[in-house]
Each structure stands twice: as C-alpha cells, then as structure tokens.
C-alpha cells in the first residue's frame, strides 16, 4: 500500500533511498545525544518541505522527487537541537523554493537546497542558531529518556569550534569521534559520519574524488598555517573532526546535482571547498565555515566543468595536429 502511494505521488529514486539509509543511524544518534525533539523537528520540516515541493510540482504536472526527503533530513541534522520549530519550517520552505524550484525543480538546481535553507536561517535568525545549544547525553538510555537535553548557558562551553574560538582549548579527539559533545543534531559523531561515507562510496552514490579533494585542500592549508604558528588555526585533526566538517564533506559537498560532473572537476571542487573552509574558520566571523564554503563551491561547479571540458578539447585537438 505504501509502495503504491509512493509510486503514485513521488518520483522513485534508488540513489536517494540509499542516502536515506546512510542517514538512519545519524537520526537515531541525534535522539540519543539530544532527545526526542530532534524527531519532532524532522517531522515538521519534512511535512512542510514535501508540501512546498508538491504545490510547485503539481502546477507543472510533475511528481514530487524522493530527493526532498534527503534534503529535509540533511537540513534538520545541521540544526542546533533547540532551533524553534517555526524557524526550521521557514528555512525549509525558503530552501526548497529558492534553492530548488525556482531553477526548475530536481536536477536543475545550482545550489544544495539543504544548505540554502541552513544558510538562510543562520543569517536571518542568528541568535537561536548560534547561542542556544544543548548538552550531549551520555550513558544509557541517553536522550531516549527525555524530550530535549539540558541547555548550555555559557557560550564558552558550547560547541568544540566555539570553545576553541573563545578559550583556545580543544576538545579531545575521542569525544569528537564518539559524538558526546554539543553541536548540531547530526554533526557531532565523526565515527558515524565516516561509516556513512564509506557506505555511500561502496554503493557508488557519493564521489570519493570530492571527499578526497576536500580533505587535501583543508589539511594542506590548515596544516601549513598551524605549523607557521597561526593561533586562529587549530591542528588539522581537530579541524576535521569538528565544526560539521565531515558531515558537509560526506553529504553536502558530494551532492551530484550541485557539484561538478567531471572527475577532474570533482578534485578541483573539493580542494576549493577545503581551502575556503580554512579561510572562513580562521579569518571570518563564522566558527564553522563548511556551509558557506560548499555554497561557494556550488557557484563555481559549472565553471569548473566548463574549464575541464575546454582543456580536454584543446588536448584532443593538439593530439590530432601531432598525428596529422
């Protein structure tokens, strides 16, 4: 019955279902670390996200794409646990409409709609998105026994990146790997995100070239600046394990629609994102940086592909001249 309903109203997309499967354990971990409110937030965001796409696609005589579920999940997992539901809903409406539908719907969007939504609420409602954080639960049953975990009052005790900016102290790698630190709903546990990345690469859904490019760009520049003694740049390992870096690298940067199509382009695109992330984290007002770095990468993705194809064409012409 559910299968017939999905086929009737949605465009079936096996790739999107694979991504959803890779996100299930992160949804569960968001409940464990921060409480059942994360599921409530996901419900309302998904409801309005699907609704806004359905309204638009119905006018075009088209079905809703299953990609909308991925967009909603990714967006929610980037939000702080205490994000007001109405703000989250406003964000997904903006992201789906202006980040996807105005470009013509699925497959035509220039920017990742989940990141468009996140950037919009971050800039428009900075206080609840940057100040209101929750402590991560530990032990059994963790957040499964509460609606939402305890509030963090001092900004110097909030997320790992904010703690580093305020005090210069770095949270231990073990805590960052396990995820029992404050942060956005699905971005705290490095191990779970890495496992998801391995699964997506195995299923050939996410481009490993993009992920490798991001790591190279980030590690190269942050490592160089760290060794030069720049106090604003933490060691690369801490930077990789915190600030939503891995989540953005695995799920956002690899979006097949808003990233380059060519293999060479994926490397260039990934390196660009990694480098820009370091610059934003170290010298801008934003503690994370990954979100804006990917959106900047999205802007250059078509140009990167054009450049790669142009040089390939020149190379072919040179070969023809040599053989002639």
TrEMBL record:
Taxonomic placement: Bacteria, Bacillati, Bacillota, Tissierellia, Tissierellales
GO cellular component, one term: plasma membrane
InterPro entries assigned: NqrB/RnfD, RnfD_bac
Pfam families the UniProt entry points to: NQR2_RnfD_RnfE
PANTHER family: ELECTRON TRANSPORT COMPLEX PROTEIN RNFD, NA(+)-TRANSLOCATING NADH-QUINONE REDUCTASE SUBUNIT B
Record-annotated membrane-spanning stretches: 15-33, 39-56, 68-98, 181-202, 211-229, 235-254, 266-284
UniProt keywords, alphabetically: Flavoprotein, FMN, Membrane, Phosphoprotein, Translocase, Transmembrane, Transmembrane helix, Transport
BP-aspect Gene Ontology terms: electron transport chain; transmembrane transport
Protein name: NQR2 and RnfD family protein
